[in-house]
Sequence to fold (97 residues):
Amino acid sequence: MSRISEQRWNQLQREYQRAVSAEYPNPGRKDCPAPAALRDLAERVVLREDLRGDPRWRHAIQCGPCYAEYIALRGIEVVKESRVQLERAEPHVKKSA
Fold:
């Protein structure tokens, strides 16, 4: 993804997150999947898997707290995947502590 389209994508994600939080605040976290399920969704998105049929995904995109947690977890997974790709590309580079 080019830098401009990545910036636009991130902007759209922030706007969507604000809208979901405003429209679907769910303060009691009714019917929310467990954190491990949201982590699984984040990992699957990073791996570019299709989530459309997943009921956890349908909930997460319509629940302010879950979507915010998913976005945070997705960021963590993107960093992990970037590290893995870097290590594959440059296996001789030492890992920092």
